[in-house]
Amino acid sequence: MLLLALDTATPAVTVALHDGTDVIASSSQVDARRHGELLLPAVDRVLTEAGLRLDAVTGIVAGTGPGPYTGLRVGLMTADTFGLALGVPVYGVCTLDGLALAADLEEPFVVATDARRKEVYWARYADSRTRLTDPAVDRPADIAGQVAGVPAVGAGALLYPDTFPRAHGPEHGSAAALARLAAERLAAGEELPAPRPLYLRRPDAQVPKNYKVVTPK
């Protein structure tokens, strides 16, 4: 097994290789505006670090968000392209699940990432491998009663200390954690889903309401 994992659902452009036993190479750069520019060089960097070629990969793992439309799309389209070019399966893993695993907590907690617009993407966990709720997007004040008293991880939690007073890192998505989680689930015989994006809301760019189509005469 050689899994290539990548995630662009948060400001981090993160890539990792997992050989079925452990992560053998990884790269993470935080830059919310350069996902498309940084992702392929990061893939090349981890392959070089591991001394491997892309055609050695046996599966692709993609973070499915939730995340902003543009950044999330970069990672998912790249994962699908690699899968088609190599003829290998592409697996989807929730970005929040990767953050939960990276947090390594064995008590109930919350993962919350920055959704912009004064909102967070979030979910509750029983422990680092067990998600209790579907990912959602909400204003922090609206979910204060649901997250009160439990630890919280992620950049979204750190932005709103009034709602998440026990917030700490890690802040952003982790391809290394995604790869570990996918490898564990595959080894246990689980069937991982295809990488379908968790946008949770419509993209910012939309066709104007009064837009008129101009047709040639």
Topology:
Elements: E1 3-7, E2 12-18, E3 23-30, H1 35-50, E4 59-63, H2 69-86, E5 90-93, H3 95-103, E6 109-116, E7 119-127, E8 130-131, E9 136-138, H4 144-147, E10 152-153, H5 155-159, E11 167-168, H6 175-187
Parallel strand pairs: 1-4, 4-5, 6-10, 10-11
Antiparallel strand pairs: 1-2, 2-3, 6-7, 7-8, 7-9
Helix pairs in contact: 1-2, 3-6
Plain-language structure description:
By secondary structure, the protein is an alpha/beta fold. Helices cover 30% and strands 25% of the residues. It has helices spanning 35-50, 69-86, 95-103, 144-147, 155-159, 175-187; strands spanning 3-7, 12-18, 23-30, 59-63, 90-93, 109-116, 119-127, 130-131, 136-138, 152-153, 167-168. Strands 6, 7, 8, 9, 10 and 11 form a 6-stranded mixed sheet that branches. Helix 3 crosses helix 6 (175-187). It is globular and about 50 Å long. The protein starts with a strand and ends in a 30-residue tail after the last helix. The model has no long low-confidence stretch (mean pLDDT 93).
Instruction: Please tell me the overall pLDDT.
Output: 93
How far is the N terminus from the C terminus?
Answer: 59 Å
Regarding quaternary structure, what we see is single chain
Low-confidence segments, given as residue ranges, are none
The outline comes out as globular
Q: Quick one: how many beta strands?
A: 11
> What summary fits the major beta sheet?
6 strands, mixed
User: Which structural category fits the helices and strands?
Assistant: alpha/beta
Indicate the proportion of strand residues: 25-35%
Put simply, the count of helices is 6
Give the SSE string: EEEHEHEHEEEEHEHEH
**Backbone CA Rg:** 18 Å
What is the share of helical residues? Answer: 25-40%
